[in-house]
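**Protein of interest**
===
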Amino acid sequence: MKPFVVKLFLIAAGFYLLCGAPAAEAQKLRVGYVHVFDDAPVVIARDKGFFTAEGLDANVTMFTSGPTLVKGLVTDQLDVGVLGFTNAITWAAQGADLKIVGKVQEGFHSLVARNDRGIKSLKDLKGKSLASQAAGSTADIVLKGVVLKSAGLTDKDVQIMYTAPSTALASLRAGRVDSAFLFEPYDSIARAAVPVTEIYEVGKSWPFPCMVVIVPGKLIKEQPAAVRKTLASLKRSIEFMKEKPAEAARVLAPAFMAEEGLVVEGKGIPPEEIMLKSLKSNVFDWRLTQGDLKRMEELSGIMKNLEILKKDVPLSSVVDLRWQSELERQKP
């Protein structure tokens, strides 16, 4: 080798050792989530930089409903979705290649009734009006197949108004409906702003894995590392929410509450206070347990009884927990 070339090589090698190897380029990922507090870990992962910390360049998009989001997964417009697991089951029954790879949150839905409507129990809902989420949503399936059924009621016994959560809350406050099936932060807002009584809460009476991480089979085949990085990011989020709830509440407030907070009888309630209550009422976890899988089987049966599913979908064909198992084996 010529002396000049050797000199250039040594200079380049010295520069490499001094500055370190070039940083690996972040892996681009299109992530969708439903704009509900149940999906708070996605907001935390985005705003606290946990996606970036795991080597992901995540383009995070908000959706108003699970059925809309899942279409993005099926049509290759998204790589990852955090939404109700029933969406994956519904589309898998139609031949879509979707996999549930982890959990985010257990279902929190509170059925609250106005104190001036004479509703003391679920049975008193007969003939009353109830505001809830879209027909066919995970919340709707649980409402019909679990909540009402536990009182011997069907959706024909109740006047269900399907609407957005914010509208459901406004209708409850204005007295246009007698009751509402709410998730956070709307439940905490309702309790603070309206004289209501909780008559059923899903998380206490019938806990189930509501929000899960769903990916197309294509991502697993072409970018398996992205699945692990996504779960690791959400794991960081959930651990942060548990360890630093007050800070998490401050991060979440701009996403789920108006800046001025809530005013009740002339007294202001800061948005962070509502967020903190919402965090305490929910159960967030990144792991799907055997109990969760059993609940999924039960809900799949309910979906078939409600004629949402036209055929059986083996859970083993939809759930893939190899990356969850990998993260579980890691030392803290």
Summary: The mean pLDDT is 89. The first helix runs from residue 3 to 19. The CA atoms of residues 303 and 309 lie 6 Å apart. The first strand starts at residue 27 and ends at 34.
